[in-house]
Amino acid sequence: MAEGRWDITASAQCTEAQKQLLFQKLANKINKEGILIAQSQSARTQLANKQQVIAKMHQWIEQALTIKKARIATKASKQSKEKRLEQKKKHSQHKQLRQKPRLTD
User: Does a structural domain hold residue 47?
Assistant: First the structure.
């Protein structure tokens, strides 16, 4: 088993804004002292477990620091609106044909 620890609060590699982002996104993996902890015991050798821990921590940090792009809302095209309305009319007509004919004079 291998365990990796990284003290985020004492790290000079990150800015304060990045540290706050890490604390928000990785809150369940950071203890009260501000230390990020990762463990691995899936490999048979300690060296392989250490490499997995390092890779895991790099992945967590990279995911936490990437900023997601905001979704740009788009309008439905005129053609798609017309197509949808045409489908609704066809469906309505199809259901109308299923009903019994009315004898109203």
Answer: yes
CATH code where residue 15 lies: 3.30.160.20
Residue with tokens 């985020």: 8
**pLDDT tens digits, 93-103:** 999 989 888 87
The pTM of the full predicted model, rounded to 2 decimals, is: 0.63
Number of domains forming the structure of the chain = 1
The model's pLDDT over 50-98, given as tens digits with 9 standing for 90+, comes to 999 999 999 999 999 998 899 999 999 999 999 999 999 999 999 998 9
**How far apart (Å, rounded) are the C-alpha atoms in residues 86 and 78?**
12
Residue 7 lies in a domain: yes
Distance CA 62, CA 87 (A): 46
